[in-house]
């Protein structure tokens, strides 16, 4: 069945190189880690912008936000890998190191339309952090 093998290989290569669909990031987002209303106007909102070449991700917050990267209303990252539903990024000025002594990389995974999860790239498959990102507006 050489023809079938060729078709399967071609489909696998095509699937592996399918770029991230940037429309999955459209709109305003809010992070939730508890049962409070995610899109309440008092919550901060985030917008994300992927560069045209998919090399950079910019994250814009509607107010200052404290994180392990410092306090800012804008964060930027280099995209180190992508799939149809995920981006693996390394934040600019990342000081945290993984178990191999390399700067931590994060995966933003769209788990359903309008819902994303974060995971550290070196965590076991299926493990995510407690934050759930929810799209609040288109």
Overview of the molecule:
- Helices cover 11% and strands 43% of the residues.
- It is mainly beta and 138 residues long.
- The chain has an eight-stranded antiparallel beta sheet with strand order 1-8-7-6-5-4-3-2, with no helix packed on it.
- β3 and β4 (70-82) form a beta hairpin.
- The model is unreliable at 1-15 (pLDDT under 50).
Properties at a glance:
8-stranded antiparallel beta sheet; 1 helix; disordered N terminus; globular; 138 residues; mainly beta
What's the short story on this structure?
The chain has one helix at 2-16; strands at residues 28-32, 46-50, 56-67, 70-82, 86-91, 106-112, 115-120, 132-137.
Kindly, what is the distance between the CA atoms of the first and last residues, rounded to a whole number of angstroms? 47 Å
Treating each run of at least 4 consecutive H or I residues as one helix, how many helices?
1
> Could you give the order of the helices and strands?
HEEEEEEEE
Q: What is the radius of gyration? A: 17 Å
Read across the widest sheet, the strand sequence of neighbours is 1-8-7-6-5-4-3-2
Q: Give unreliable regions as ranges.
A: 1-15
Oligomer: single chain
Number of strands: 8
Largest sheet: 8 strands, antiparallel
Rough outline: globular
- Percentage of residues in DSSP E strands: 35-45%
- Average pLDDT over all residues: 82
Q: What's the helical proportion of residues?
A: 10-25%
Structural class: mainly beta
């Amino acid at each position: 069945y050489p023809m079938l093998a060729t078709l399967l290989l071609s489909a696998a290569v095509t699937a592996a190189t399918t770029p991230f669909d940037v429309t999955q990031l459209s709109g305003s987002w809010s992070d939730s880690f508890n049962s409070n209303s995610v899109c309440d106007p008092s919550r901060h909102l985030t917008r994300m912008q992927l560069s045209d070449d998919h090399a950079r991700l910019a994250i814009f917050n509607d107010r200052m936000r404290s994180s392990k990267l410092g306090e800012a209303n804008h964060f930027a990252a280099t995209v180190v890998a992508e799939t149809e539903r995920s981006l693996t990024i390394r934040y600019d000025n990342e000081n945290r190191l993984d178990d191999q002594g390399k700067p931590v990389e994060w995966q933003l995974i769209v788990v359903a339309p309008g819902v994303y999860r974060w995971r550290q790239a070196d965590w076991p498959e299926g493990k995510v952090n407690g934050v759930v990102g929810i799209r609040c507006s288109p």
